[in-house]
């Protein structure tokens, strides 16, 4: 059941709920756009690797599902999408392909960095939604979606670590730069 459908059964979102949820849904859609293109870039460069391709493909398939879900939620909840979607497409592909060109370990370090930030970001959102669901139980569905996606992202993090993310050249610098880029993108996407 969608958020909008369940909301119509009891009550529409309050102005305050909409004010909190609009930037949340906008940034989540933007982040999933970025993730979609990161994996596309990684596969474009590393897709011939018979061991790595299925791993990247599985993570990309999950990101496709996440993006489809947020695309749907943007419409259902009447959230203005980010005006910078073309930028998120290009930036995501550039980061994915760029780190993949540095090698499999750097691509995995990229995934480790991105999923660290996104896992924490979804956890923060989940705390907000759980609190809001006390007043509006219809938001529990959104909370379940965010929790599932958080778990997927943390699984991607663990897969990246298992596949030598920390052996990337200049791992700590690469990870820090990508994490800061993600945090900056979150800040911008909430607003634009």
Mean pLDDT: 94
Question: What is the CA–CA distance across the termini?
Answer: 29 Å
Radius of gyration: 17 Å
Share in helix: over 70%
Largest sheet: none
The SS-based structural class is: mainly alpha
Total DSSP E strands:
0
- Beta-strand residue percentage: under 5%
Could you characterize the architecture of this molecule?
- This protein has helices spanning 3-10, 15-46, 52-76, 85-101, 104-135, 140-162, 171-191.
- It is elongated, with a radius of gyration of 17 Å.
- The longest helix has 32 residues, at 15-46.
- Mean pLDDT is 94; it is low at 4-8.
- Helix content is 82%, strand content 0%.
- The protein is an all-alpha fold.
- Helix 2 packs parallel to helix 4 (85-101).
- It has 7 helices and no strands.
Keywords summarizing the entry:
7 helices, mainly alpha, 192 residues
Short description:
With 192 residues, this protein is mainly α. It is 82% helix and 0% strand. The longest helix has 32 residues, at 15-46.
